[in-house]
Task: structure prediction
Amino acid sequence: MSLLVDWLPRQRWFGAKGRDITSVAQTSAVVLSEGDPEITHAIIQVSFGDGGEEAYQLLLGRTKQTVEQRLEYAVIGEDDGYVLYDAVHDPFATGLLLQHLAAGDEFDGLSFVNADELDPALPGRLMTAEQSNTSIVYGDQLILKLFRRLQPGANPDIEVTKALSDAGCTTVARPMAWFDGTVAGETTTLGLLQPFLHNSSEGWAMATASVRDLFAEADLHADEVGGDFAGESERLGFTTGEVHLLMARALPFATAGPEDSAESAQQMNDRLDAALAAVPELEPLAAGLRDAYSRIAHRTQPVAVQRIHGDYHLGQVLRTQESWVLLDFEGEPARPLAERRALMSPLRDVAGMLRSFDYAARHLLAERADQRHLAYRAQEWAERNREAFCDGYARAVGADPRDEAELLRAFELDKAVYEVVYEARNRPTWLQVPLGSIARLVGVSA
Result:
């Protein structure tokens, strides 16, 4: 396991970059295929110098042969005469996972469950656009998401999508199969298989293409460009509202009072404190942030709370020929599982998507200093699509999210603080995007 100490921090999905790894221990190992290569499903416990621990899921290949050229970049290192490699890049290894899902196999440590008949012979390929998890596509029909960082318990993604699918929702990707393991003594979701919507377009790609069209026609306004996205934003808002209504019926629903609002505001301040320690550039905006949070702390009106998406943005939605489809209901992977499963205001999802429109409008400006003269156009695009999304959402639920301006603003700011920390750690050149948004929302010059 010592090889993993150097390898883990280089992985895109590793959630503890910058923390000192003191040890890596294997807590579960299930051999899926003996021989050479040997394929093992492993759960590891990573310990850090600050006393913390995190669990991760790995699929490991082990061979004495020369690794094929196509797998050289997946090599982790050599151990006792064997080459160890990340087997999610190996179609043979990922094919084993589909075979076990199709058969509904049981191992000592792994349990595979299917809700649909599956073709175990479909070829698998790793998707390259990875985030906090790893996705494998089988024959352009199925997609398996492997949850890399593991927290004990049922993952909200399967819990929510199953409830919505059972309630007849057609605008979420239904769970077709999944598999579980054990982490800290609790049954824990390891992977989720869903339909692969190959004839679809990602919301982020569509939105950023619209922004590029606008920038290419610098003398036109957002509503005059052929690639205007506002119609799709309105439809996305409507679909989001419909899903929220169904979630409120199919899953727990409650009303939060003043004490809950005060607690929510305190959590926002706690997250801000942690962000300030990690990103000093946030300090000039702290007073404005705390003022916005204090308005929530003193709120007396009740707030409807329910299960929500929890990490809602343009990268989590696909446009098919029929409609928008919502994906990835696991919430923000860095947050504790109990928090991701908690009942929250659906306006948090609205705020997340509003933030995403800002990102889509400004990401080119963040990376290309020579295009900063287009900042006005970016702002115009973002405002147009934010308004269109809220229009659609209000039409679906019968209540306009903009009527809850203070609550919505606080949720946007809380999300932007999360983004500040993320960008500082992963994409420093994008840091100005959330910082600029916070400055605009609190009325401070960036």
Remarks:
- The radius of gyration is 23 Å.
- The first helix runs from residue 3 to 7.
- Residues 3-87 form one domain.
